[in-house]
């Protein structure tokens, strides 16, 4: 009897061991859709690098196929595709969904808001991540930082902006809350997918546009049509996003969940570094090879009008949703606290050494 029991225990243990090995060797294959085309660096690099890290860290157990916008043909449909389970993941920007769900708006950036280091600190240590998950929970989607551009330039304009009257009637591509600010100042605002920007500017469908900064703008050729390049105010810390279908995530083994979270965080911050480098390099090139570019700062009366419109719209925005109000006030409180250190550590250093 003892011998039979021993054999049974050994057999059971062996089967359990084989099952563990089989489970460990199980392959997971996901798909990810991006808002970006396959050559739009560094935006496309963030999900691409994330997928490489996932595969390497999982020893090939977890693979993610990246479908760029030129493949799935729906650059501004990423939230719906991830929400509906057509894709397991997406890579886009949260403010694109403000027309579907206004509570998602603040998680990209807000005019006159947090800088990139301030915003990363808010996300990971100041309660921002928890608020973002609350906003996306109703969609069955998890959202995570997906790469930051830092402070973006204020846009390319065909003509110089010397007054508020020069803005009125202009057609401009500018997404997010900044678009609402510009609309309040009399512009006709539109949101155009990245692959259509140059053609729209060239054909006169729009008179001005904002994109990112020198690192990404130089290859787009906007300076050939609209030589006035204005400094930023509207997107001081543009954070892209990884979206994950919650049901897909819950099916993952715990170790693959952790691998995915780590890969997203690493690739997001790497994109921030990469974009900073690209802009530094590109601006050096622009200064010498494209002397027709005229760098401008919006006149003070224009900036004052933008700030006034922004404050008025924020008051209206907070009344739309308790969660939206909580998120915006969380950002404002964190900015007030962290900006004192930003001024001491960065602004005063630069002021005294430029």
From TrEMBL:
InterPro entries named in the record: DctP_fam, SBP_TakP-like, TRAP_DctP_sf
Chain positions recorded as Na(+) binding sites: 211
GO cellular component labels: tripartite ATP-independent periplasmic transporter complex
A Pfam family the protein falls into: DctP
Chain positions recorded as substrate binding sites: 152, 173, 210, 235
Signal peptide span: 1-24
Keywords, alphabetical: Metal-binding, Signal
Alphabetized GO MF terms: metal ion binding
Gene3D superfamilies membership: Bacterial extracellular solute-binding protein, family 7, Periplasmic binding protein-like II
Domain of life assignment: Bacteria
GO biological process: transmembrane transport
NCBIfam families: TRAP_S1
PANTHER family for the chain: EXTRACYTOPLASMIC SOLUTE RECEPTOR PROTEIN, PTHR33376
UniProt name for this protein: ABC transporter substrate-binding protein
Lineage: Bacteria, Pseudomonadati, Campylobacterota, Epsilonproteobacteria, Campylobacterales
């Amino acid at each position: 009897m003892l011998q039979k029991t021993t054999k049974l225990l050994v057999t059971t243990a062996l089967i359990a061991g084989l099952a563990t090995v089989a489970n460990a060797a199980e392959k997971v294959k996901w798909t990810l859709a991006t808002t970006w085309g396959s050559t739009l660096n560094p935006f496309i690099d963030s999900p691409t690098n994330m997928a490489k890290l996932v595969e390497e860290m999982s020893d090939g157990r977890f693979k993610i196929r990246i479908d760029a916008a030129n493949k799935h043909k729906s650059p501004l449909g990423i939230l719906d595709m991830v929400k509906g389970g057509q894709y397991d993941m997406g890579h886009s920007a949260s403010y694109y969904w403000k027309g579907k769900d206004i509570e998602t708006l603040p998680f990209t950036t807000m005019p006159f808001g947090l800088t990139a280091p301030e915003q990363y600190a808010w996300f990971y240590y100041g309660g921002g991540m928890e608020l973002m998950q609350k906003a996306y929970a109703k969609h069955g989607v998890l959202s995570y930082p997906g790469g930051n551009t830092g402070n973006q330039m204020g846009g390319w304009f065909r003509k110089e902006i010397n007054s508020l009257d020069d803005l009125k009637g202009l057609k401009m591509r500018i997404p997010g809350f900044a678009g609402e600010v510009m609309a309040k100042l009399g512009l006709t605002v539109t949101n155009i997918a990245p692959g259509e920007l140059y053609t729209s500017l060239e054909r006169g469908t729009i008179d001005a546009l904002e994109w990112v900064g020198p690192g990404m703008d130089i290859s787009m050729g906007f300076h050939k049509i609209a030589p006035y390049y204005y400094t930023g105010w509207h997107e001081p810390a543009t954070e892209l996003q990884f979206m994950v279908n919650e049901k897909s995530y819950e099916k993952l083994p715990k170790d693959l969940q952790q691998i995915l979270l780590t890969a997203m965080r690493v690739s997001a911050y790497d994109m921030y570094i990469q974009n900073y480098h690209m802009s530094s390099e590109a601006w050096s090139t622009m200064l010498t090879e494209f002397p027709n570019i005229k760098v401008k700062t919006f006149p003070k009366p224009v900036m004052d009008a933008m700030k006034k419109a922004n404050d008025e719209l924020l008051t209206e925005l907070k009344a739309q949703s308790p969660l939206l109000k909580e998120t915006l006030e969380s950002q404002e409180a964190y900015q007030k606290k962290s900006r004192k250190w930003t001024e001491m550590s960065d602004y005063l250093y630069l002021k005294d050494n430029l």
